[in-house]
Amino acid sequence: MGFLQWLGGRMAAGGASPRAAVQDAGGGKIIATSDDLSKAIANAVQSIAGPSVTADSAMRVAAVYACIRIIAGAVANLPLSVMRRIDDKTREEASDHPLWRILRKRPNRWQTPSQFKRMMQAHLLLRGTAYAMISRSRGMVQEIIPLHPDRVTCKQADDFSLVYEYRRKDGGVTILKQAEVMHLVGLSLDGVHGVSVLEYARETVGLSLAMEQHGASTFKNGLRPSSVLKHPKHLGKEGQEFLRASLEAFRSGGDSEGKSLILEEGMDIAKLSMTAEDAQWIESRKFTRADIAMFFGVPPHMLGDTEKTTSWGSGIEQQSIGFVTYTLEDHLTTWEESADRDLVSESDKGIYTRFNRKALVRGDIKSRQAYYVAMLTWGVLSPDEVRALEDQNPRPDGRGGEYYDPPNTAGAQPDNTGETSDEPAPSA
Q: Is residue 427 part of a domain?
């Protein structure tokens, strides 16, 4: 009888359900049934290179960690505002709406908005999906509490509604309806469950882990390759132990670091394996780093690889613009549409959420200045609106609300045919 069959028989007979006694910092997964154990074993599949690739082990790869940090950090630092549509042409920030406090001040009792968004985005990148339980009172959202995706099972009912099973730390299961969960879904093949990047990048990440282990082992052994020592005569057990101890002491560094190895009694040394340079270990690591960056949609230069910065557009600047357009915009849209669906009530007519994308250039004063000058010149923004974007008070002379006339229409008046005329406007 196999272990899983024995475990299933125990549970069918009313035996105690096994469950994890301790939850690690990564969240982990409660093992409550034999099916849970089977899934956990299946998910810990080893890569062809050897190491098992999980969300926790993948984060130990520098390129994976950097991609998660860059994308999650960008989403976390952008303000997610609650907007109100007044009419077809007028919008205003709905700072008086209760949801504004949740998204901009305090999503729950222990997290700031940036912490909440960063955590949810990391879940989305590593698992393809992210969940947060919605706490409501009198129809209004009071808290959004993140749930670890490893402990949530999403199922679609026959009426196409979604039902969520959340396994608590004590082993119990809480059933949540679709209206009680904020559900972020990335790239999906069935419209319900997101595709995990690690599922398809398993071999690339596993190769990177294997090379890291190889490099660590190589440095630990003093950068000396495996070798064989040849002795012209028979060497007894005591002599072998003495020689091995001497070599270990030499390879451990210290005063012997960089010095030559002296062999006695006509001994000779021969290499058995290639060095790291012969195997192009460093070059291979660059290839895996580029592959990982491609899976996450992050330009290689943002991970420190600046060797091929002219491969896209005119260089690094165009790569950064491409990252915002083709990678970050996709995640921002997912957040906005999910928040509108799950957090905004049907009775809140005209309320929607919107990221302030202008904050992306907050660290680039030259780009901000050029943007403001263009908006002021063409009468799109007033001086007071520009000052508000820079967290400054209105102009003290009271003229900050005036809009400048566009330069190509200043003084031009429309005639009876709808065309503009250079003749001065008639006096009142």
A: no
In tens, the pLDDT along 274-313 reads 555 545 555 555 667 788 888 888 888 888 766 655 554 4
Q: Helices 281-296 and 202-220: crossing angle, nearest 10°? A: 150
Structure tokens at 119: 């955590």
H-helix or E-strand spanning residue 246: helix 237-251
Domain residues for the domain of 288 are 51-221+276-362
Same domain, 307 and 340: yes
Tokens coding 45: 């599949």
SS (HEC) of 86-148: CCCCCEEECCCCHHHHHHHCCCCCCCCHHHHHHHHHHHHHHHCEEEEEEEEECCEEEEEEEEC
Listing DSSP states for 324-387 in one string gives: IIIIIHHHHHHHHHHHHHHTS-TT-TTEEEEE-GGGGGTT-HHHHHHHHHHHHHTTSS-HHHHH
> Distance between CA 247 and CA 344 in Å, rounded?
70
Question: Cβ of 154: how many Cβ atoms within 10 Å?
Answer: 19
Same domain, 216 and 232: no
pLDDT at 196 over 80: yes
Tokens of 403: 């809009």
Task: Give Cα 20 distance to the centre of its chain.
Answer: 27
**195 and 260 inside one domain:** no
Note whether residue 426 is domain-resident.
Answer: no
Q: How far is residue 278's CA from residue 211's CA, in Å, rounded to a whole number?
A: 14
Residue ranges in 153-222 assigned as alpha helix (H): 197-200, 202-220
Which secondary-structure segment (H or E) carries 55? helix 55-58
CB–CB of 145/135 below 8 Å? yes
- Tell whether 147 is covered by a domain: yes
* Top-ranked range on mean pLDDT: pick from 39-53, 139-153, 268-282: 139-153
Q: How far is CA 260 from CA 225, 251, 255, 311, 370, in A?
A: 15, 11, 12, 46, 63
